[in-house]
Design a protein that fits this description.
270 residues, 3-stranded antiparallel beta sheet, globular, 66% helix, binds zinc ion, mainly alpha
Length: 270
């Protein structure tokens, strides 16, 4: 009977956290549904420990998004709608981790834990790098061509402040994951999250600098990577129309998960 009680408790924890996120305007109404789906997949596939990691990533993301939000809006780099994330964004950041959680039901083990931690570290690192990078005093440079200075918020643009943010966010996830016991070997967890998160964020920037769709808003004429801006579809100016920001997030979380899995393999071979 304990498992049914556990299941009910987990159900209400997920709903309560998602509801709190709506009340804090961190997600919109459809984001609630997406968050609940991701949350259930994580909690039933990985347990409450995995869910705590996702919840902390989410809090970290909200904190970085709202940090100096007014200034970021002034320079045109802030997330829209007061920083509220919509459902495609949530599925893009939590989708791969949810699939890993479901696979963990079928074949539980350290490999799934490593893929999960790498994916979440990537999402945390990417969010922190984007939001802190907007505050960089030195202009961001293109990751594929450091000689080229680009406006803050440009896909593929990197700054040392953004890099510090990516490393910091990955470390937070790693330090948190140790006491939660996500992996049996505590010494591998922090380096695994650091490498996975930073690698994933770098992959995100590399895709952003090369094949990611870029466009501009037909209303306010600002360059944007969003498919819609000011309520109108944006015009594609560069990159592949199919590779938009959310797909890039999915690909980078997979890359970060894979990097963490490699670290796990290396550590177990030592
Ligand atoms: Zn616009």
């Amino acid at each position: 009977m304990l498992t049914i009680v556990d299941g009910v408790i987990e159900f209400f924890v997920v709903v309560a956290v998602a509801l709190a996120a709506v009340l804090l305007s961190a997600i919109d109404a459809r984001g609630f549904l997406a968050s609940a789906i991701v949350g259930f997949a994580i909690v039933y596939g990985g347990g409450l420990q995995w869910f705590v990691v996702v919840a902390v990533f989410f809090i970290l993301g909200v904190a970085f998004t709202l940090y100096k939000y007014g200034y970021k809006r002034q320079i045109g780099g802030a997330q829209g709608k007061g920083g509220a994330r919509n459902w495609p964004h949530i599925l893009a950041n939590g989708g791969f981790a949810s699939i890993v959680a479901m696979l963990n039901l079928l074949a539980p083990g350290s490999a799934m834990g490593a893929l999960f931690l790498g994916a979440i570290s990537t999402s945390a690192a990417d969010t922190a790098a984007t939001e802190l990078g907007l505050l960089s005093q030195s202009r961001p440079r293109l990751i594929t061509n450091p000689a080229k200075v680009v406006p803050p918020g440009t896909s593929g643009g990197v700054s040392s402040l953004g890099f510090v943010g990516a490393a910091f966010a990955s470390l937070v996830i790693g330090v948190l994951a140790v006491p939660l016991g996500i992996l049996p070997d505590p010494y591998v967890v922090v380096p695994l999250c650091l490498v996975g998160g930073v690698f994933g964020a770098v992959v995100d920037s590399l895709i952003g600098a090369t094949v990611q769709r870029k466009g501009y808003c037909v209303i306010c004429l600002k360059p944007t990577e969003a498919l819609k801006h000011c309520g109108e579809p944006t015009v594609t100016t560069d990159g592949s129309p199919a590779i938009e920001n959310n797909l890039v997030n999915v690909m980078s979380t997979m890359a970060g998960g894979a990097a963490s899995l490699v670290i796990l393999w290396i550590a177990s071979a030592l």
